[in-house]
Write a structure and sequence with these properties.
The protein is an alpha/beta fold. The protein has 8 helices and 16 strands.
Length: 382
């Protein structure tokens, strides 16, 4: 049930290889092939590729009846230029693994190595290398793929590294661990005019100036409340970058966030009603659309208990501090198909934050994450 020193060296080198050649959401074709090639020696009984985009599922069968366990990692990187200074830093300008998905993938690959040496006593294991987590469409695409039905799990487990938590410690709790969120794009249409005669046009300027404070004001409650909601304006654009034209068009982007999925519908309705009212006041037409939709991630009690048992048996310290988080995570989709749970593995109290340009995944987490998953697997399947 343990990795050899050689395993750790090779997995670390492979993780760094992935780090050098990042691919952002929905572009992970080469990364997916790297996964398939790396797992070939472990002899999976079935490998599904192209799941929900570029997803890969490696299936390890026991040949005996029992539950299906799915362990998930992510393949995608971010559109961020790396400034870590690491010898294995990204070779692709403007793209980098600033969330540690390369490390999560290495942890699942470590699980594959161990399963290649010894299959579970019963049931089966699915290693799910999921695309497009950062844009929120990856897990939904995987689950919507007609082939997913054949590997549908009874339990689904995942992890995410977490800077700000001592290296190797775990944070885990039942219930909501990540918020639901979605990006709302609001387009306002009026009429352009010469800047010397703005009265002949219909400008969105006043509507934008009202919406920027009014949208955040829709937020309710504190983060400790189940009814918590917040709206963050992230981008505003109006007219052309010229001096001679009074604007006739504008866009405002905002991120809507709630702790509960059912609260999101209410927040969207309130935001759309606000836009409709303000647009009408200023004689503007408008439209709203949504992007990067994330469901809330909710840890099932029975799945959490299996992880807690594994943590205790492996001597990994854990607690509930830092949870839930405002940030979103598309693993929540799997929770609608199976008893699921995600734990958060400390990357170090002073480690650069996720999505920062100087971040790099701590390689010391590879054996820790894999042994927790492996213990969970053996406890459930023998």
């Amino acid at each position: 049930m343990t990795l050899t020193n050689r395993d750790i060296v090779e997995l670390t080198a492979w993780r760094r290889q992935l780090h050098r050649r990042p691919e952002i959401s929905n572009e992970e074709e080469r990364t997916a092939k790297e996964v398939v090639d790396f797992l070939a020696d472990t002899g999976p009984d079935e490998v599904l590729t192209g799941l929900g985009g570029h997803g890969v599922a490696a299936v390890y069968e026991s040949g005996k009846a029992g539950p299906t366990l799915l362990f998930r990692s992510e393949l995608d990187a971010l559109p961020i230029h790396e400034l870590s200074g690491a010898p294995h830093a990204s070779l692709v300008p403007g793209k980098s693994h600033m969330c540690g998905h390369d490390g999560h993938t290495a942890i699942l690959a470590a699980l594959g190595r161990q399963l290649g040496r010894e299959r579970p006593a019963r049931g089966r294991v699915v290693l799910m290398f999921q695309p497009a987590e950062e844009t929120g469409n990856g897990a939904a695409g995987v689950v919507a793929d007609p082939r997913f039905g054949a590997i549908a799990p009874d339990f689904a487990f995942s992890l995410h590294n977490l800077p700000g938590v001592p290296l190797g410690e775990v944070r885990l709790k039942t219930g909501v661990v990540n918020c639901a969120s979605r990006g709302m794009r609001i387009v306002l249409e009026g009429k352009t005019a010469h800047s010397s005669m703005p009265e002949t046009g219909i400008s969105p300027m006043m509507a934008i100036s009202q919406l920027m404070p009014a949208l955040p004001a829709l937020g309710r409650g504190t983060f400790a409340d189940d009814d918590f909601s917040m709206v963050t304006v992230t981008h505003v654009e109006m007219g052309e970058a010229v001096f001679g034209i009074a604007p006739g068009q504008a866009e405002i982007w905002a991120t809507l966030r709630t702790r509960r999925d059912d609260r999101m519908a209410n927040l969207c309705a309130a935001a759309e009603a606000l836009v409709t009212r303000i647009a009408a006041e200023h004689r503007l037409s408008h439209r709203c659309d949504y992007h990067e939709v994330f469901l809330a991630s909710v840890n099932a009690p029975e799945a959490v208990e299996h992880l807690r048992r594994a943590l205790d048996e492996e001597g990994v310290p854990h607690g509930e501090e830092n949870l839930p988080m405002r940030a979103s995570e598309d693993f929540g989709v799997f929770g609608h198909k199976a008893a699921s749970a995600m734990f958060f593995l400390g990357a170090g109290e002073r480690h650069p934050a996720l999505h920062n340009p100087d971040y790099d995944f701590p390689d010391d987490l590879i054996p820790i994450g894999s042994k927790v998953f492996m213990r969970t697997l053996r406890n459930l399947l023998g």
